[in-house]
């Protein structure tokens, strides 16, 4: 059963990352607006992250060479950690606006779901097993 759930997760995550990557390439302005000032060459970073999301999403979907799928899972998990400062920056920018931009109802779940996304992509890519049941000591 766990295998079916992992496959389902991969088939949800893979296309989501591909679409996000395409958006980074096709419409970079919203991503540039939330980029922290300390990031050098922001346009290049947005381009590179778009390409990385597309490649990672496609590699997560493939079933022929598990090491590539695992590398994609690691890459996408690391990517989710690396973009967290942009999420924090976006949150701070919105809260500083008079109308609070997208507001707490958007930003709080987004912040809380980021660690879940890291876990999910690692689990779907078969890097981690949890919450799979451990074998009984008597088995």
Automatic annotation (TrEMBL):
Subcellular location: Membrane
InterPro entries documented for this protein: DoxX
Record field: transmembrane: 44-61, 73-92, 112-130
Record flagged with keyword Membrane: yes
Short name of one Pfam family: DoxX
Keyword entries, A-Z: Membrane, Transmembrane, Transmembrane helix
Membrane topology, record value: Multi-pass membrane protein
Name under which the protein is recorded: DoxX family membrane protein
Species in which this protein is naturally found: Croceicoccus esteveae
The organism's taxonomic lineage, starting at the top: Bacteria, Pseudomonadati, Pseudomonadota, Alphaproteobacteria, Sphingomonadales
């Amino acid at each position: 059963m766990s295998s079916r759930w992992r496959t389902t997760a991969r088939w949800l995550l893979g296309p989501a990352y591909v679409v996000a990557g395409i958006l980074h390439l096709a419409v970079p302005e919203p991503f540039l607006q939330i980029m922290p000032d300390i990031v050098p060459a922001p346009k290049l970073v947005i381009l590179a992250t778009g390409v990385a999301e597309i490649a990672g999403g496609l590699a997560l979907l493939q079933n022929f060479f598990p090491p590539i799928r695992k590398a994609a899972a690691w890459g996408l998990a690391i990517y989710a950690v690396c973009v967290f400062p942009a999420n924090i920056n976006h949150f701070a920018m919105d809260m500083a606006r008079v109308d609070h931009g997208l507001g707490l109802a958007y930003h709080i779940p987004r912040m809380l779901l980021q660690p879940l996304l890291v876990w999910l992509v690692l689990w779907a890519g078969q890097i981690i097993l949890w919450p799979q049941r451990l074998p009984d000591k008597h088995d």
